[in-house]
Amino acid sequence: MTGTRVLVLNSGSSSVKYQLLDMETETRLAVGLVERIGEGASRLAHTPLSTGGGQRVQRTPVADHEAALKAVAEELAADGLGLDSPRLAAIGHRVVHGGLRFTEPALIDEEVIAEIERLVPVAPLHNPANLTGIRTARALRPTLPQVAVFDTAFHASMPEYAARYAIDARIADEHRIRRYGFHGTSHAYVARRAARLLDRDPAGLNLIVLHLGNGASASAVRGGRCVDTSMGLTPLEGLVMGTRSGDIDPAVVFHLGRVAGMSMDEVDTLLNRHSGLAGLCGDNDMREIRRRIDAGDAAAQLAFNVYTHRLRKYVGAYHAVLGRVDAVVFTAGVGENSPPVREAAVAGLDAFGLAVDPELNTRDSAEPRLVSPAGARVAVAVVPTDEELEIAQQTHALVAR
Ligand code: ADP
Fold it and tell me: Which of 134, 174, 231, 379 is the most buried (most CB within 10 A)?
């Protein structure tokens, strides 16, 4: 008899986010975050939800991921939720890049670790940190099943013609250059949850899912399977994001090298960190941008217009990809919380049967809900994402088999 609890770990280069969930009740027992690992001013914030205790914050230096995970284990143990409890069934790790190999969650062993390592060249910013989390957790609990859940997996169902770039096929194959897509855990969760909201069988539904957080991506989902998505080889392609440019003429890169004298690394940093909303107006937070627009700021207005114009283009394009659309679904920080973005994303798309109801769209709620007018041909919905729950469900499903 395996336990019912799953610890979800999301290991970044200098942070570890974690949640302990009970899968029998699908409730969260504890959540927390260790930040600035390896820097002097580390911070661990732990909230034991099962005991109803308040958040506890530690500000002692945390040297590395091993120290971070040990500190997390101690916090959990203090609430009677220790990692040595037989009720802990598994640890589920978020892994960003699963390449072509991982189209499903994988039970972690040395071979799986080696394969995630082999994918580092296509995910140099993310996979090394995810691997560190995996190795550290395995060292801490060597006999506990650990599962890798990949951000790319949901998009593996894309047809070849949507996944391929139109470049020399030999070079593409040699270097594994193709469109993989990201945020897959969120797109999968939201697509399924939207079907429940619409009271429809996912198998018969065509959805456009817009995950608009700091990173942003769109996906076209037919019958529960992804048929196209906006991110590509890396999370840089597609929509305008907080700090990433999204789609851009690749010749801009040559131009910056030849004319502006920038190095590859400088261009990489420019497009990933100093572009998007931040590049256009200096702010990447939609709340601040809306505040500036209300105060008459022209740069903020232009950034908002560039952002929502790109969104509308993808909504239109994915209508063409799907042929028929049942719902457009907004999720993540911006998608869940910004009525003006939702309104602008479907503005002028009446011909597609798309509109938002002004009252429903601006109503405050944290629940999955419809924001389109009653009787609309295409539903517009807001579905809060829950990547940790999705990772925990997939992890538990794998080890409870
Ligand atoms: P991440 O991609 O980091 O997981 P989130 O999904 O949490 O991001 O989204 C973060 C973004 O959501 C913020 O940068 C901000 O732009 C936006 N956001 C959060 N709350 C609001 C709000 N109330 N109104 C508008 N935008 C919001």
Answer: 231
Topology (CATH level 3) of domain 201-387: Nucleotidyltransferase; domain 5 (3.30.420)
Catalytic residue among 22, 79, 151, 228: 151
The CATH number of 5-150 is: 3.30.420.40
Which atom of ligand 1 sits closest to the CA of residue 211? Answer: 6
- 151 carries an active-site annotation: yes
Q: Are 226 and 327 in contact (CB under 8 A)?
A: no
Give the residue, out of 151, 287, 330, with the most ligand 1 atoms within 8 A of its beta carbon, to mutate for a pocket test.
287
Residue spans per domain, the chain = 5-150, 201-387
Tens place of pLDDT for every residue, the chain, 401 residues? 579 999 999 998 889 999 999 999 999 999 999 999 988 889 999 999 988 889 999 998 999 988 999 999 999 999 999 999 999 999 999 999 999 999 999 999 999 999 999 999 888 888 999 999 999 999 999 999 999 999 999 999 999 999 999 999 999 999 999 999 999 999 999 999 999 999 999 999 999 999 999 999 999 999 999 999 999 999 999 999 999 999 999 999 999 999 999 999 999 999 999 999 999 999 999 999 999 999 999 999 999 999 999 999 999 999 999 999 999 999 999 999 999 999 999 999 999 999 999 999 999 999 999 999 999 999 999 999 999 999 999 999 999 87
